[in-house]
Amino acid sequence: DTGVSQDPRHKITKRGQNVTFRCDPISEHNRLYWYRQTLGQGPEFLTYFQNEAQLEKSRLLSDRFSAERPKGSFSTLEIQRTEQGDSAMYLCASSLAYVRTDTQYFGPGTRLTVL
Amino acid sequence: SQELEQSPQSLIVQEGKNLTINCTSSKTLYGLYWYKQKYGEGLIFLMMLQKGGEEKSHEKITAKLDEKKQQSSLHITASQPSHAGIYLCGADHVSDYKLSFGAGTTVTVRA
After folding, report:
1. What's the pLDDT score for residue B51?
2. How far is it, in rounded angstroms, from Cα A34 to Cα A55?
3. How would you class A16 by CB atoms within 10 Å of its CB: exposed for 0-12, middle for 13-18, buried for 19 or more?
4. For the segment B2-61, what is each residue's pLDDT rounded down to a tens digit?
5. How many Å apart are CA B97 and CA A29, to the nearest integer?
6. Inter-residue contact A17 to A1 (CB < 8 Å)
7. How far is B33 from chain A (nearest CA, A)?
8. What is the mean pLDDT of chain B?
């Protein structure tokens, strides 16, 4: 059984550059979530998709952030004009979502460092 | 999240000893999830509780959700080095699907 995968695992970039992360959910999971986690804190919700539709975005998701899930399978999260405050672990999770309490399974995360 | 408070923030336990982590919500919980995280890695699902008074166990880890559904505890019996890590509680509070997380409890097990 393949779990949630994320690529890359680590990304170092200079301030002002654009970065894109990819998430591949567990197959057949129709709901996909993005979270951000900073050191010493729990994950904070950014956005989620049901199939290809983006249903909710957090206020944390500024205009520089955009997420897509074009075919309802993998998703990408792009950050434009990165700032040092964007440095964090970006986590992706997926769930079946047929019932309210379907468990979210997380990927290994992408650690972003903005210099 | 200010909606979820975890305690303690960290703890050190001697191998073989028991430990308990608490998670308190300021709102009624629809569902409460426990995850474990190794530093720099993703979250591993442990257990999910939904019903007030519910208790679940897996190997040496037991989680409970109180009757009023605003507090949960995670108990590890006879801790081992493999239990070391960060334990996070995640709450499903209302009729949306995102989880709100506590800040986590860092567990260190000393041989």
Report:
1. 82
2. 12
3. exposed
4. 689 999 999 999 999 999 999 999 888 888 999 999 988 999 999 999 888 899 999 999
5. 14
6. no
7. 8
8. 91
CB-CB under 8 Å, B99 with A45: yes
Whether residue A107 has pLDDT greater than 60 = yes
Q: Do A111 and B100 touch (CB under 8 A)?
A: no
Listed in sequence order, the residues at least 6 apart from A90 whose beta carbon sits closer than 8 Å to its beta carbon are A6, A21, A34, A35, A36, A37, A77, A109, A110, A111, A112
Cβ(B4)–Cβ(B24) below 8 Å: yes
- Edge-to-edge strand list for the sheet holding A5-7: A5-7, A19-24, A75-79, A65-68
Q: Which two three-digit tokens encode residue A58?
A: 């957090």
Which residue type, as a one-letter code, is found at position A107?
Answer: G
Name the helix (H) or strand (E) containing A65: strand A65-68
B50 touches A at CB < 8 Å: yes
